[in-house]
Design goal:
The complex is a heterodimer. By secondary structure, chain A is α/β, with parallel strands linked by helices. Chain A folds into 2 domains: about 290 residues, Thiolase/Chalcone synthase (Peroxisomal Thiolase, Chain A, domain 1, 3-Layer(aba) Sandwich), CATH 3.40.47; about 30 residues, no CATH class. Chain A contains 13 helices and 11 strands. In chain A, the strands form 2 sheets. A 9-stranded mixed sheet of chain A has the order 3-2-4-7-1-8-11-10-9, sandwiched between helices. Chain A has a two-stranded antiparallel sheet with strand order 5-6. Chain A is globular. In chain A, about 60% of the residues are buried. The model of chain A has no long low-confidence stretch (mean pLDDT about 95). In chain B, strand 1 and strand 2 form a beta hairpin. Chain B has 2 domains: about 130 residues, no CATH class; about 150 residues, Thiol Ester Dehydrase, Chain A (Roll), CATH 3.10.129.10. The chains are: A alpha/beta, B alpha+beta. At the A-B interface, helix 4, helix 5, helix 6 and strand 5 of A face strand 4, strand 5 and strand 6 of B.
Amino acid sequence: MGLSGQAALVGAAQYRPEKYSTAPQMFHLEQVADLTVRALADAGLELAEVDGLIVPAPQFHEATMFVPAMAGEYLGVALNYAEVVDLGGASSVAMAWRAAAAIEMGMCNTVVCAIPQRMAPFAPDEDMSEFMRASRYGGHSTRYGAPEAELDLPYGHMAQNTGYALIAQRYAATYDYDPAALARIAVAQRFNACHNPEAIFHGQPITVEDVLASRMVAEPLRVLEIVMPVAGGGAMVITRADRTRSIRHRAVKIIGCGEHVQSKSPTYAQDMLATPIGPASRRAFEMSGFKPADMHMAQIYDCYTITVLLTLEDAGFCPKGEGMRFLREHDLTFKGNFPMNTHGGQLSFGQAGLAGGMSQVIEAMQQIQGRAGERQLARHDLAYVSGTGGVMSEQGALILQGA
Amino acid sequence: MTWNKPLPQPTPTSAPYWEGLKAHEVRIQQCDQGHWVFFPRIHCPVCASRELAWRKISGEGTLYTFTVARIPTMPEFTDEMPQILAVVKFDEGPHINTTIVGADPATLKVGQRVRPVFDDRPGTATLLRYTPVESAHPGVIDDAADAKVMPAAETVPAVAVRKIDIKNIDAVRALVSDSFSAWSPELAVTQELINEFAALSGDDYWIHTDPERSRKESPFGGTIAHGMLIQVLLGRLRIPQDYEITGFNNMVNYGSDRLRFPVPVPAGCRIHARSRVKSVEQVKSGVKLMMEINVHVVGQDDRPCAINDMIIMYM
């Protein structure tokens, strides 16, 4: 059971991460169209070949209902497969496997997954209060009857920083916790970003000392261990592997996937340190027939350094509790013995909201295709990619292989 | 004090939990198979039983994990800085989100015993906070207890004072330092104070004076003080100094080289200030002494809400 590699990633486009204040404003429909057309050109496919579309429902500016129909109509395509995915930072990974599954089932031939994350313009007389409310509370529901509105917000339990800090503190009390080892993640990724002209922190190297001296946000997490939200967006094209002779670049087959959703708030997880990426990754590896040690690269969702650490452990790159040692013993840059987040990761490439995780899928695709420029890996046929939504709430994993 | 923070809105299912807290009891659900349930639900998430009963429990448990937030998670929590957010594991098993009171964050340990503290201050609901079992913190927080932690800036801490003659320019220059003085007493920036300043200054922009609209539309989640108000309040924040300048005929405020308001001050939080001598310059008419005065929201000691490089001219 599972995917058999009949579907492949063949092209992508993404906006360069930019500060919200200086990024262009575009309607989300316009962004979807723009990104789709560019991703298709990257792949060498025609718009008329698209018969599947996956978009995010939350934060879609022009509508909250019937979003795929509206976006498909705007694009000018008829769809045999139309879907929204609502898995936060795990959305890109989740979109990729859904597209592959739909293609393998014969539901459709070519799927575009698009996440617009530039701001949309406001109408001159638009009421800002709903927008302000949404941006203040982020992924937290403030609606009547939502457990978090009732039981978290009154105590100030809010947003991702403190949720991940609670997990990190629990980890520190249970296992070895070494801030300098964790800092190596941020430092290595910044090194990679300094070789990626698209990265928001291109040209700004940092050291372990810089990370350890940076501002404490929520103990034990410091500001250089936390992503900076940016404007951006991305789209990727997935098509039937046997149709890929006409495409411009090497096909990147989706040969394994897994997904696990455990809880909305880590508070209610039975064990805060047994994260959903464990079951998700085990399924993905098993489906692919490969093991963690077989991978040529890991593109790991990195909203925080602690997210990477827990993923390395729970996905099986090292035993539980030995993450710090793994970090100390490996060079995580694209030149090192464990190439990870070779584009700079979201920590240094930039986290464009729900599209943040797509930068990791796209980097894996481009590495496998041999198009990663200065940071191209010598061994680049197999990639592990992870996605994380919420506070270790919903996670997914992909195994990609060059055709 | 007005409660400007989000409040729980009990549902028909959860109401008994909140009624329990008002009565200073912790009541959670248990199903007929003996599983404890929290948060309140209509079924048991372990066995799916719909037969749930409310039981009184001690509320005691262990600290499952915690974090000390150095940046307010929401602006309206600035008055609680630093926030000690925690997850407590009830002895019965389920976890609950809370905050820790009456403890030095540096002494907290995952796994330590904690007991409930019923916080009656919001008025319409009682919140369940926690404190280490051995803490002397009262088991109930009410408005009277709140008044004790909101002092006004009246008393100045006593410090040994050196007298420095302004004509002894070397001694005055020796005051220049990178390190700051001790903190002033704390002062609460109330909505009433902000309203008075709005009336006096004529700046009654809604982000200062309209709590309801600010809650909905402002990025700060509530009203904030005018930057100029914070700067004016310096007069009431008596910063302890270990020196006194003597031997001058006249002392005037010459103005400021820099006046910045980097961090908003939400209504209801407390501020305090500290200063240092930044530079000393002998000029024709006397001595120009520049003080860097930093006002901070209490708990945000790493980031001032107002910076004033104020020049005092001694003649």
